[in-house]
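lol forgot to send this yesterday, sorry. struct tokens for the thing we talked abt
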């Protein structure tokens, strides 16, 4: 593998088409498309400042690197990538990719990040600010995520999450096949219009969570007292809740059990009354 070390590049496409190269302590300055249409790259201890610095790269390992705010839309159309111990300040990262793995990565502007990624593994990742990360992505595995970005995980398929703390708005909308373990989910309108969602050992906060969903399962979960109007228009709910629920509203079918239920509302807009709701003796 060829080594390129201690170099600074600028302008247009300075490292276009390189293959089987190890990059150490390089800098990509202002310009566009610094690394493009490449194969089998390793990059460490490097800094990226220009636009679109890493496109159409097949097979890459990126470690201990920094992507500045101006390196927006930096990594697109690049399959089979592992990124470790990096800091990203630019928005719109990771689009139209397959087989992407991140470990110990902080993204400080998560705006429109992880769009249309197929095969995403995330370990100990922090997402800050921005909107719509993970949009349209599929086959996602997460173990360790802290996020305060808005509208996370929309239109996603086949998602498994462990040990996450997600503070957001409108998360997991229109998703299929989601399982979340041992996590804190804080935000309005959790998992609306989704199918086959399972929460295990989770704490849920925010208004009107878990509405308009089909095949919804909760095991050993808890709700914040401010969470109300839960399970509206949900079909096939199987919920085992520890502690109290403030209000359940208009669930269609299934079985809900909790230690205490403050209020059960069925109004004239209810679409069915087949859900069994009970408290533990």
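and heres what i got for the seq, position by position
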């Amino acid at each position: 593998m060829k080594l390129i070390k201690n170099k600074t590049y600028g302008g247009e496409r300075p490292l276009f088409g390189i293959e089987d190269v190890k990059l150490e302590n390089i800098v990509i300055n202002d310009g566009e498309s610094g690394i493009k249409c490449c194969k089998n790259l390793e990059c460490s201890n490097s800094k990226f400042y220009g636009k679109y610095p890493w496109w159409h790269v097949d097979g890459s390992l990126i470690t201990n690197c920094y992507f500045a705010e101006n390196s927006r839309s930096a990594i697109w159309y690049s399959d089979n990538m592992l990124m470790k111990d990096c800091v990203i300040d630019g928005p719109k990262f990771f689009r139209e990719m397959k087989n992407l793995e991140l470990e110990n990565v902080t993204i400080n502007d998560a705006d429109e990040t992880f769009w249309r990624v197929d095969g995403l593994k995330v370990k100990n990742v922090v997402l800050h600010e921005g909107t719509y990360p993970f949009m349209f992505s599929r086959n996602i595995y997460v173990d360790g995520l802290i996020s305060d970005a808005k509208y996370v995980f929309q239109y996603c398929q086949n998602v498994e999450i462990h040990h996450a703390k997600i503070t957001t708005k409108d998360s997991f909308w229109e998703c299929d096949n989601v399982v979340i373990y041992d996590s804190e989910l804080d935000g309005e309108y959790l998992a609306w219009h989704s199918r086959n969602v399972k929460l295990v050992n989770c704490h849920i906060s925010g208004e009107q969570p878990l509405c308009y969903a089909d095949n919804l399962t909760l095991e050993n979960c808890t709700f914040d007292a401010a969470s109300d109007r839960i399970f509206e228009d949900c079909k096939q709910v199987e919920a085992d809740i520890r502690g109290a629920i403030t209000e359940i509203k208009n669930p269609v079918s299934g079985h809900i059990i909790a230690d205490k239920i403050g209020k059960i509302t069925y109004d004239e807009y209810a679409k069915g009354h087949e859900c069994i709701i009970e408290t533990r003796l």
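The first strand starts at residue 2 and ends at 5. anyway ping me if u want another try
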